[in-house]
Request: fold
Amino acid sequence: MNATQPAEAVVCAGDTGINALATVRSLGRRGIPVHVVAVKGSPQIASSSRYCGSVTEVRDASALYEALRELGEGCVRAPVLYVDNDRMMRLLAPHAAALGKQFRIVDAIADAERLTDKAFQLEFAGAAGIPVPRSWFPRTWTELHEIGRGTGKRLIAKPSPASFSGASRAGFKALVAPTAQDLARQLRPHVGSPGEVLVQEFIDGDDAQIYAGLCYRARSRDLCLVLSARKLRQSAPGAGVMAVGQALDVPQVREMTRLLAEKLDLRGVICTEFKFSRRDRKYYFIEWNPRPAYFQSLGWKAGFDLAYLAYCDHVWPERLAAGPRLNGNGHYWVSLRADLMHFSKAPRRAFEIATWLPYLRRPEWAVFSLDDLAPWRKATKQLAGWLSGNAVRAATLNRRPGH
Reply:
């Protein structure tokens, strides 16, 4: 087989598929054949892409390994394997050695248990000399209430590693509260025990003080590439996934991300998040993900195509010789659904002129693309359902006594 002929890429798509969609489009537009593996009935949109050549649907995520094993057995040339979410990485971790004989694996699934462990992340970042917010892993509601005695700051709760085990998944990204008591009230509908969450002091500042590093450390050569960015808005003010972001060159964020990748001796993808505190002028470590970020397509216009860099590292390493030419400023990324979620919680932002400037600067859209409309049509139907559900809930609330 000709060495320049592209090998197939296999992309495991999580529930939303936005991350996987970026990988599918990145590779498919270059003529690389792409196969998507997804859970049957999930709302993922990656398999709707015109650049998705074929699809395997599994009954649930626990069947993922068997599906991949069968796919690998049918390939003459080892495909490049991408996994777009932490839960699938952890489920595949026990099978990493077997998959490594059939696939060229982009993400560090063999070490997924450790790398997705929030307690390990915080300890490692602190040992590397990076500021870390005060953090707790309360086991009981009493311990959660006791946290309030030791801090006067707002608190933020996130799913802990326990929420990724087995079939368990947390129903929230993050919750912010002024006190431990209020945090407990918000958590109770989501978790059976505080042992399922990580609690931290909330670093003061708005969404625009949150910075990210998108990093690829090559296996084929000594090359560590990092693009820095910042969030402008999140799906929920103060906590959530990126709704609007901007590629922005921040040397300190790039260097901290590179430091973590090198100290971990991680080859492949790591995406970091930090929050800048204006009070003490420090960047505080928030988390990392050992796989591409939800907003990885933010890097495309800035010359940083994470999925393609990984593909070249495994298939065409000579194309990585010089690395990409980065232009890391002034490029925007927008997730319309996440932004509407933001406005539903902070409606006044929708009436500010500055809010809409990224929309007018030719952003990279999370879903919409003129050359690939099917994912956008599917996502639009899902968005209409979400908006309709919100309207019904609001109407029901308004009809209750006292409203």
